[in-house]
């Protein structure tokens, strides 16, 4: 990475990564807070720009993975619910009374447990990755998130246009 990274830039990059924890304060904070900080300060430094891109890429990737897990779980849960109820046709109020018996609902319980564990693992990966990225940013290092889909490509020094490059030649 650059050798001339200022402490201020390192702190901003670390703050971009840590700002995803605003999701615990307001909905979609994990997208909105890093996006606003990144959009406001990405022109200051390539270091800030790349860390902002990586933080947003990771949050979008984790969102897609969580939605995919939930969408995959729904048919399994419906199927296991119908099997546990003992009826494959009409579902009535008495149907759900059969779910009280663990023997009949064991498939449903196992399905909920498995998908719950997978979602919890995704959450733990997110926590550790965000903290690791913030520490790397504060040390002036690049961080590559695991399981990350690159929606916003990170820039190289040669890709970023400098003010002297954009001025017309005289």
Structural class: mainly alpha
Distance between the termini: 33 Å
What is the alpha-carbon Rg in Å? Answer: 23 Å
DSSP strand tally: 0
The overall average pLDDT, rounded, is: 84
Range of strand content: under 5%
**Unreliably modeled segments:** 162-170
Order of helices and strands: HHHHH
Helix count, DSSP H or I runs of 4 or more residues: 5
Largest sheet: none
Number of domains: 1
How helical, in percent, are the residues? 55-70%
Shape summary: elongated
Structural summary, described in words:
With 170 residues, the protein is mainly α. It has one domain. 62% of the residues lie in helices and 0% in strands. It contains five helices and no strands. The protein is elongated, with a radius of gyration of 23 Å. It starts with 6 loop residues before the first helix and ends with a helix. The C terminus is likely disordered. Pfam families: MamF_MmsF. It is a multi-pass membrane protein. Its main location: membrane. This is Tic20 family protein. It is found in: Membrane.
């Amino acid at each position: 990475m650059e050798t001339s990274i200022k402490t201020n830039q390192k702190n901003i990059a670390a703050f971009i990564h840590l700002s995803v924890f605003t999701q615990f304060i307001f909905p979609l904070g994990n997208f909105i807070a890093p996006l606003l900080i990144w959009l406001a300060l990405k022109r200051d430094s390539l270091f800030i720009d790349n860390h902002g891109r990586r933080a947003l890429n990771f949050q979008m990737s984790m969102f897609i993975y969580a939605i995919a897990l939930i969408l995959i779980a729904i048919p399994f849960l419906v199927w296991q619910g119908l099997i546990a109820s003992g009826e494959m046709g009409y579902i009535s109020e008495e149907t759900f009374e059969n779910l009280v018996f663990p023997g009949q609902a064991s498939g449903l319980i196992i399905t909920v447990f498995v998908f719950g564990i997978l979602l919890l693992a995704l959450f733990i990966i997110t926590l550790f990755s965000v903290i690791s990225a913030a520490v790397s940013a504060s040390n002036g290092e690049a961080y590559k998130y695991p399981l990350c889909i690159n929606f916003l490509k990170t820039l190289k020094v040669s890709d970023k246009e400098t003010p002297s490059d954009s001025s017309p030649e005289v």
